[in-house]
Amino acid sequence: MKDGKLSLWPFLLVGFALLAIAGMLIFHIEKLKETVAALDERDLRDKTDLATEVLGASLRCGDWNRVRAFGAERRGDGIRVTVVDGTGAVEYDSDATGLAAHGGREEVREAMADGIGSAVRRSETTGEEMMYCAQKEGAYVIRLGIPCSRVMEPVVRAWVGLVLSGTLGVLGFLLIFLFSERAIRRVRELSLERDNQERVLAEMRKVEELRRDFISDMAHEIKTPLSGILAVADVLQCPDSLPEGERAALLESIAKESSRLHELAQNILQLARLESVPDETRNGFIVVDVEDLVRGVCARLKSQAKSTGVKLLFGEIQPTTACCDPKLMEEALSNLICNAIIHSRSPDVIVSVERAQGGVRVAVEDHGIGIDPVHHARLFDRFYRVDRARSRDRGGTGLGLAIVRQVARLHGGDVTVESVPGKGTRFTLTIR
Length: 432
Prior knowledge:
Largest sheet: 5 strands, antiparallel
Number of helices: 11
Helix content: 55-70%
Order of helices and strands: HHEEHEEEHHHHEHEEHEEHHEE
Number of strands: 12
Radius of gyration: 35 Å
Strand order of the largest sheet: 2-1-5-4-3
Distance between the termini: 90 Å
Structural class: alpha+beta
């Protein structure tokens, strides 16, 4: 009997082990099911958000051809696209035609009320268990749906592995392990895909925001001189005769504002050209004596500095050469020095040249009013001005420092700023 009782222990241990393994696997598979469902729901929400952004403009202008093309593309990915109007009528469905009103569908009803809605239910059209997400866009609701069978595919595979483990023992356990690995890999893939989609959406929004800001800033910059030209033109068109002195002053004002517009257009074109220059352009650079280049720029700007009461001085000038585009470098240095002459309110501007590791460093320093640190991060953005009113009165387009940064980066370097309010500012242009 002892031997009989003892002989049962291995079977009991194996049985308990199999039950424990089975229970553990069932628990983890249920957790996996919840994780996959949550990830796919988030993924479907991201896709719905993207579809709303893509189709919003088409729906507002009634471009149903674009809507149908988008639905056909998504149908190829196994995603059903439905567009419902404010009354609940189905305006478009990628999988069926002649559908009844969808206003009573749970996800559509939530979207109409709260802007977004979701549901998991059996489709009344296809009879298949589906996961839906709907989002309101103007007078329409855009709904995306995917079959739950596709969502739960990794979980089904894991269950198959569990059944095999019960019949094949250790081999079944190994099969479950392999299926679980595949399921985990699928979860990771879904997570990575969702992260990539979120990153792409964030980049798209950032690009769109930059585009809107650029157009808004450019329109604002153009509007100011145009308004001045139009106002003066109105005065000149008046039938009443003007004194010759006033007429000359008005014509001078038109010329000044026209010159500002021309400079703005030239700078915008120059910046666009610099941003579109390929890296191969560096092959056309030539070796230039940087000391001669800097002294030549300062000589041309000396009279401008003198007219504003600024002394243009040289600091340490180390003889050095660099491989660069001399015209672009002259423009960048002119912008930096003119910026210091016009805006720093400094009694002197000091220009120095020194060798840097693998390149050259040119510094433009003043002892003027300085720049508050809150402005440093945006100084090299297009159209950014520390003091918009004073900068516009003193001239300039707000693109000079942006051009300097682009030239520096084209030469493998960059431009930085160090400034203390009330003590002065130092701009450093590095090329390599």
